[in-house]
Design a protein that fits this description.
alpha+beta; Alpha-Beta Plaits; Calcium-transporting ATPase, cytoplasmic transduction domain A; six-stranded antiparallel sheet; disordered C terminus
Amino acid sequence: MTAPPLRSDDLSLTYFVDGMDCASCVQKVERMITTLPGTAEVKTSFTKQTLTLALDEAQTPRATLERNLKSLGYTPSLLGAPTSTSASTAVSAAAQDHDHDAPGHTHETVPTGTPWYRSGQGKLVVLSGLLLAVAWLFGFFAPSLSVYGYVAATLLGVWPLARKAYASARLGDPFSINTLVSLAAIGAVLIGEAAEGAVVVFFFAIGELLEGIAVGRAKAGIQALAALTPKTALLLEGGAVRELPADRLAIGQTVQINPGARVPADGTILTGISNLDDSPVTGESVPVVKTVGDSVYAGSINTDGVLTVRVDKAASDNTIARIIQLVEEAEGSKAPTARFIDRFSRLYTPGVVAVSALVAVVPPLFFGAEWYPWIYKGISLLLIGCPCALVLSVPASITSGISAGARRGLLIKGGAALEAIGGVNTVAFDKTGTLTAGKPRVTQIIALHGSESDVLQLAASVESGSSHPLAKAILNEAKTRGLTLFPITGAQALPGKAVTATINGQTVHVSSPRYAQTVVSLDSGLQTQIAALENEGRTVVVLHDTRPLALIAIRDEPRPDAKAALAQLHHMGVKTLMLTGDNARTGQAIGRDLGLDVQADLLPEDKLKIIAGLKAQGGIAMVGDGINDAPALAQSDVGIAMGGGTDVALETADAALLRERVMGVADLVGLSRATMGNIKANIAFALGLKAIFLVTTLLGYTDLWMAILADTGATVLVTANALRLLRWKGTPEPLGAPVSA
């Protein structure tokens, strides 16, 4: 269905919805909202318990929306003040912070870590259990009174379910899970089976409680990330050090980080050298030596040296905040399988009610059978048919899979991406900064006019405004030699071809040999030299104005784990391919060493054509890190960005490797396959168990007690199976594979 267009005067609202903590809860809320005119851009998350939408109050007043949520049994609390859709980012920020002091917040939520028995659902379970126990004890010395205890326990448990069922029916969803359980429990009381009715609602309440606990476990690891950033920082100002709250740090300020302290903000090291433990952020277990010019992440641990760091990002935009935001958004993004299950359940649940009614009525009416046994069987079928386990089977696995990936430095931006990664046939890699470390260095300068220092000074001046890894190599070499750069004007980048600038009135180019040959004449001697360097796996750039001035050879070594990662992908049946804008000789030299096919001399538009062709042959994933890779990342079925890449690549990609290891690609494929295997097992188990109990109930072998176990038991087992993904440790390397660093 096409979403209605947003209007500038639509309100952007974000609510914390207390009690909306399961997949079926989200489903009920979404179905209710579809009945309201003037709603658009609806996003729900049962892990955050948030609802975000754009609302035209001329069609549906906000009070109506809130009243409908309350009638479904949920308590909405507005996070932040309502804004127009053009200013909705402010509300999103408020939602991330869960600001419980924000205007419109009207309730006290249960704090994280609160014992289960203090939650509303926990209290219901305890009270229902006590009434059941009392009724059971009455059965020994006052049997006539025990039935009242069972009826009381049934009514206590069924009242909130019946109220939600009524609200759902009034709002367009008459066949909710609450409806099925309410009908079964009330029906049991009416046919004189109050004890079984009480057990039905008690077990159902336990199932919902366990589901909430499981969801809490799945999201606890992500929520714990927020606690990694220290509360205070040591600000360096005017030669003095003073302490202030870390969330008040501003971009450009300088902080001091002492040994053993956590980094308070994303930034760049200005002075000092130390080992940084990035494991809380990226999952990388080995501390990394970092020094002047290197980036640091908020939440990392400084193990030994004293560092001074320039703050590059505000607290709301640091790496941890972005991870939390993206993972929470991802958990609310439904996979195709989840959307199919949602559509299926809309037909499945009314079908269950119809079949149950037919089983209860047809044999007595048309075949003279006794009413009691068949009504009893019909009630049992209502419980057996509850789609709780089925509805939960996909989102529980997706949530666990995304959380497990985030803890290993694999940031996946949605259920659709997680599902698609495991099904790709081919993974295409960019070279520089992806298969290679992205830290090339100048290995040789062949000056054709002037000295090495002269030509290097020119080349570095032209590249001074570029962030490309090859440009950085030239700039680093000039810095090492202590060269002063010329002022430039008219700097321009031609992606995949050249960088040009004007120096002292003369246009100077730093080009690929292929592009340089279209501008100036390269004689056979120069071409031979270029070929020899490229055959050694070096990248050659040509410095020229109206004539060739120099050849600069640059070498970027493959990442230590690249060969093992590619071998792992081949072992998993995934083809690999390098797509690079570098020359064919250099690309082939790297490709031979790593063992993958190579297509080189590619412009960004060439990569797009190749990706489109590979998509026609099956799933294709693209791995890259630069601005030039963003179109290819977007074009592929799954775009994967190296974590150290540009913001453009990270925002365009469907997944990111925070540890900057090529093995992360194999881990993504392995995690996706493990998650989809988990989902298939859950669906098969949920439907299979129901099929077994359907047959045994119709044959008279199972009763209401077993029917509710078929529902609640399946829900518990499906949840437990999904939680196994939280212990996922990564993809084991095949025997005989090269050892990764």
